[in-house]
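User: As part of a screening pipeline, I want to sanity-check one entry by hand. Below is the sequence and the SMILES for pyridoxal-5'-phosphate. Please return the complex as structure tokens so I can compare it with the automated output.
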Amino acid sequence: MSYKRDFPIFSNHPDLVYLDSAASTQKPQIVIDAEIEFLSKHYANIHRGLYKLSEKSTSLYDEAREKIQKFINAKYFEEIIFTRNATEGLNLLATTLAKDYLTDGDEIIISNLEHHANIVSWQLIQKFKKIKIKVIPIDENGNLDFEAFKNLFSNKTKIVSMTYVSNVLGNIIDVKKYIAFAKQKNIITIIDGCQAVNSFPIDVQDLDCDFFVFSSHKLYGPTGLGVLYGKKQVLETLLPYQGGGDMIASVSFENTTFNVLPYKFEAGTPAFVQAYGLGKAIDYLSNIGMKNVFNHNQKLMNHAKDRIKEIDSIRVFGNVDKKVGIISFILEDKKSKTNFVHPHDVASLLDEKNIAIRVGHHCAEPLLKCLKVPGTCRMSFGLYNEISDIDKFIDELKKIKEFFVK
Ligand SMILES: Cc1ncc(COP(=O)(O)O)c(C=O)c1O
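Assistant: Here is the complex for your manual check:
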């Protein structure tokens, strides 16, 4: 089954081999059409107008929320909050939990695999609260150490915040096990689902996490939009993140009361056109079925893993048996180990052949430090990739290797 034709970027760039979906996915026509349709037929600010056009745009915004609720199997509509991106979702949580839930001396557990968004947002809290950040260690393949995780807990532990899939290694983490352990101790759990939600079915009720965040633009949807899922009973205990229009029930100079969920966390005019687009991306993915998305991804992964074996000077990072969608690697001189081809050279040479990959630290510097490399080359798949993309990539990589590594 080929999905490529659903994505107009490839008719405009017929030679493009796009292997950077972990950074952002390309958009299917249905999402592009949705934004044009909304802007040309239904556009008016939501919630504020007592006229048909505004009522229509409000109902389309709410429908998008319902689609997301269903897609990740959230129990209530109110549990889906629109943010700007996953980064904002994590910052919202760090900030509001710090206000309502954390006191000096409390401890947060994150993992060594985290994206900067799930590190720096907590470090910012340390500027005004004396909280401690503890880190779940990894082995050389990026596997988290569950025993070490258990030993990190103390009576000061308040939050566990961790990624579901590493954006550098593609490793899938058995987050359910970590959540279950934290739940026994009544600890708040946050899952960064950015690289998971686009790769396999998500069921937040089954995971039983308190919060789950992701970005629309990595899920074939528009940019400028993210989703924060939170359990209703936990969200209700938190103060709003930002103040402004829509998040209030009534305002006076003496006292302001807040709106109900989810609007309490959506101050100001939200990205409702983009939300409509994300709803269409979800329709598109649901028609394919997320299990089929996963199978397609694994077919590409297995082929890539097989063909990579043809290159003897490649070092692949992460757990090769537990990967989805992402392969990070370097080309190295096997003898000296450290003398690898600079990832930027690899990316530039591939770009000359219209092959797009990402290189660098992938916003996960502590992980790269642990892997003892300053950067990696990262290929990542999307629905539109085909076996021929992998073949073209490997054939060009072989030539680069021959050129640099004798
Ligand atoms: C695991 C993970 N978390 C968070 C982010 C941040 O996403 P955004 O830049 O869309 O906020 C990314 C983006 O690469 C990611 O891969």
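Points to compare against the pipeline: The longest strand covers residues 157-163. The longest helix spans residues 52-71.
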